[in-house]
Design a protein that fits this description.
single chain; 325 residues; alpha/beta; TIM Barrel; 5-stranded parallel sheet; 3-stranded mixed sheet; 11 helices; 8 strands; 35% helix; globular
């Protein structure tokens, strides 16, 4: 499907028609390499002792990833990326670099989040040759903050080494794109000063394919204990724009449903459009249109519908984001 035509239909269904049965396939796709993780970060549901009990730990297989790519290809989506971020650390799946290779053969740009601990220089060299990608990695400018938030000792210097090598490769190879996020704001420090400190720590030569950001957090799973104030309700765009898929093929409404609370179908068993416009997906959208997110298991603890606005809710931001992917 033509990219601009796809986005126009998306905008019409989401903002104008507000329909639950959609005349287009998902625009963005996320698929989970694994839901296992070697970190237990304070800001992540993985830190919850009961998180791993909510669904079995498993791995995406090469065979199933090829199946997914074929089904994605058959619906002719408008964008040219694939996201490997849902739950877990992707490099705990031994086939993850092969997934990047297979995506590149489909002319897809790979996007993933990683804690960076397993991306050794040798692994980076293999990753660079696999295909184009953007890695989003969380870091802190202070070792004590890092070890406290990420609940992991003796990894700070290792991650610094890995990041410096990734930055070096980003300056040499256009396949390598990085987003380095400073998580220090979670500890209450001055975000601007902390970000400058982190840049200096990893500098001095930062190529243009490396960007630094301050990571802010919202309570997408209800695990942070924030009290959500019900301010102005805003219709969440995700069930109209994207599909997230767990390692075993279950379709969930967005990449924030890390526990797969709302399973809307299975794309390994059915085709994408059958799931996308199935009764479970339509009911999920209708509950949001009715301003009753609490009826959706994935939404009932999320603060996003009542987040009080901000630039991420502006249509200009949403569609610039879609066009840029």
């Amino acid at each position: 499907m033509n990219r601009l035509k796809h986005i126009f239909k998306l905008a019409r269904a989401y903002k104008i028609g507000k329909t639950t049965e959609l005349p287009y396939p998902p625009y963005q796709y996320t698929i989970e390499p694994t839901n296992a993780c070697n970190f237990k970060c304070d800001f992540c549901p993985q830190s919850d002792p009961e998180h791993s009990q909510r669904r079995p730990t498993g791995q995406l297989t090469v065979e199933n990833f090829k199946l997914f790519l074929g089904k994605r290809r058959s619906v002719k989506p408008g964008n040219k990326n694939i996201n490997f971020t849902l739950d877990g650390e992707p490099f705990l799946n031994k086939d993850f670099i092969q997934f990047i290779e297979l995506a590149a053969k489909d002319r897809l740009f790979s996007i993933f989040a990683s804690n960076g601990s397993l991306i050794s220089p040798d692994k980076t060299d293999l990753l660079t040759e696999a295909g184009p990608f953007r890695a989003s990695i969380d870091m802190a400018s202070d070792k004590n903050i890092f070890e406290t938030i990420r609940s992991k000792k003796d990894n700070y210097e290792k991650l610094l080494k890995n990041l410096r090598y990734l930055i070096k490769k980003a300056g040499e190879n256009e396949n390598v794109n990085l987003e380095i996020n400073d998580i220090s704001a979670f500890a209450g420090v001055n975000p601007k000063e902390s970000l400058e400190k982190l840049i200096n720590l990893l500098g001095p030569d930062i190529p243009s394919r490396v960007v630094f950001r301050t990571r802010l957090f919202h309570n997408f799973c209800g695990h942070l204990g924030f009290i959500r104030k019900k301010e102005k309700y805003r219709l969440c765009p995700y069930p109209w724009t994207q599909m997230a898929v767990t390692y075993n093929g279950d379709a969930v409404p967005c990449c924030r449903d890390t526990s797969a609370r709302s399973i809307l179908g299975n794309v390994f068993e059915d085709d994408i459009i059958t799931v996308w416009n199935g009764s479970k997906y339509r009911l999920f959208r209708q509950n949001l249109l009715d301003k009753k997110p609490e009826l959706n298991a994935a939404c009932k603890d999320c603060d996003l519908p009542y987040s009080g606005g901000g630039s991420k809710w502006k249509p200009v931001y949403i569609f610039r984001s879609l066009l840029g992917r």
